[in-house]
Amino acid sequence: MTIRSRRESVTFRHPFRINGIDRLLPAGSYDVVTDEEMIEGLSFPCWRRIATMITVPAESGGAGMTEMLSIGSVDLADAQAADAQAADAQAAPASVAQRVAHD
C-alpha cells in the first residue's frame, strides 16, 4: 500500500475552534498534514484521505512548543468557513458606513 503526505499552511484571521480540540486557538498560520493512501487495482492513480492533522501551540509547555492533533477534514473546512464569515461580518459595517457617508 502506497501512502503519501501532503503539507499545507492555512491561515485564520480570527481566534477559532475546531471540533475535537477543546480550546480556543489563536489567529495565525497553521501547518496541516494530510495522509492519503493509494487505492489499488484501478487503471488510474486515485488517493483516499486517511488522516488530517494540524500543528497547534502546545497547551502546556514553553513558548514555541507545538503539538500535532488529529482533526476531521470537514471540521477544518467548517472552521475556515466560520473564519471567512467573521471577516465578512467585520467588513460589512464598514461598507454600510461608507455608503451612508456618500449619501
Mean of residue pLDDT values = 88
Instruction: Report the principal-axis shape.
Output: globular
Regions with pLDDT < 50 over 5+ consecutive residues? none
What can be said about the biggest beta sheet? 4 strands, antiparallel
Give the SSE string.
Answer: EEEEH
The separation of the N and C termini measures: 65 Å
Overall helicity = 25-40%
Name the assembly state: single chain
Notable traits:
103 residues
3D structure, described in words:
The protein has 103 residues and is of the alpha+beta class. It is built from one helix and four strands. It has one helix at residues 73-102, and strands spanning 3-12, 28-38, 47-57, 66-71. It has a four-stranded antiparallel β-sheet with strand order 1-2-3-4, covered by helices on one side. The mean pLDDT is 88.
